[in-house]
Amino acid sequence: MEKNLALKLLILCVTFVATPFVWAGVTVTVGSDTEKKVFIGDIVTPDSVLAGEVVVEGDKIVCVAADCPDPEGATTIRVTEAFIFPGFIDAHNHVAYNVFPKWAPLKLYSNREQWQRAREYKKFKAPYNDLKQHVFCEMVKYGEIKALISGVTTIQGTAPNKPCFRTLIRNAENQNELELPPEHIRTFILDVASFKSTIDWTKTRAFVVHLAEGIDEHSRAEFDTLKAKDLLKSGTVIIHGTAFGDAEFQEIGSVGAALIWSPQSNLTLYGKTTNIPLALKHNVPISVGVDWNPTGSDNIFDELRVAAKVNEENFGGAIPSSDWAKMITEHPAKALALDHYIGRIATGLKADITIINKHHDAPSKSLLLTHLQDVLLVMVGGKALYGNQAGMDRLRPDGCEPLVVKGSQKQICVPDGADLVPGSGQTLSDIQSVLRARYHFLAPLAP
């Protein structure tokens, strides 16, 4: 009798360990080798959806096919009624400013110098310098977490570079874990007239510059300055370009430069946004960036919805519906000269993966219906950092903390025990406590 009971208990334990765990369209069967993972489901490639498998070993994708050889001991993640996307790229965001809440301008402006000089904006921004001096690392990490929960795995707009930023999502210009030289991407956010340096285009593959943010001739004339400084090249990436007309986009397209579009912030500050149909007419590739929390959207999904509304109401549907996904994956990866590393689910690229609920059979149309609670799993370099709580408990049983997002139970993993840089042991709660001690109006992560 005791032997039979012991045998039954043994069988029960074995069955429990091997049983897959299902959460909201994702079934996780934990394997013996945590470095190997197999995703099975609908994979979003640049131009189609593949019903197949993605095999990850370490931080890289080693197979994408209808049927891949599954490595021994791999954890299996089976996805149903959801899409397996490449990690999203927020092409432009002033990350440290995302600790600030919304700022509502009292009027519309003609160029960025006007609102930056406005008394109400200076009052709004007054805490920034003190915060930057004392808690800059926490400011940036909080901004990264705000992006991470929307499926963003790479963000552009973090400067200056500090080791403490290295532990969460990728900072494009700092080439986090991409083993690229620091000059690979250069950014310039001031008036281009003040740019006094030179660029070695054999080393710098992307020069990201704020340009023509406004609707007046003063803003447009910045394009003339850019050309006079011989900075309009195939590697030039223009943020905003709100004042551009047909002539400017013709020249941008002729050299193969790219554009980053932040419609919500443009509309809030100027009442008008960039003429994207003209850009498309001249084959200028478009990426989307949130810009920042004060006048931009709360997350990348909301920014896409603003873009889609402008496209429908003002652009006559000039932007193809299939482009929405590309604007936050493939296009920014190419514009930032990182397409050999991120932006697609393809063999040899980094295992940056975002899984979201499916709301439409077409991935781009599904994105426009996606909200924060629909993000099921976010992985950067093969490491799960965020997702629904039950599944994350299986994938990352240690070092994570619960987070409720729009009523959905999530789990986020902020500490990094493998990358011992300043602040690598901080939790989300630690970061929030440090920031709130100096700033009482901290923007919510998921409003």
Structural description of this entry:
There is one protein chain. It is globular and about 60 Å long. With 447 residues, the protein is α/β, with parallel strands linked by helices. Helix 4 packs antiparallel against helix 15 (428-438). The chain has helices spanning 2-18, 112-117, 119-125, 128-148, 217-220, 222-228, 246-255, 263-270, 276-281, 300-313, 323-326, 330-335, 363-367, 389-395, 428-438, and strands spanning 21-23, 26-29, 36-44, 49-57, 60-65, 75-86, 88-90, 152-155, 170-171, 185-188, 206-211, 236-240, 258-261, 286-288, 353-357, 375-380, 383-388, 401-405, 408-412. Helix content is 30%, strand content 23%. The chain folds into two domains: 2-86 and 358-399, Urease, subunit C, domain 1 (Roll); 90-335, Alpha-Beta Barrel (TIM Barrel). Strands 1, 2, 3, 4, 5, 6, 15, 16, 17, 18 and 19 form an eleven-stranded mixed beta sheet that branches. It has a five-stranded parallel beta sheet with strand order 10-11-12-13-14. It has a three-stranded parallel beta sheet with strand order 7-8-9.
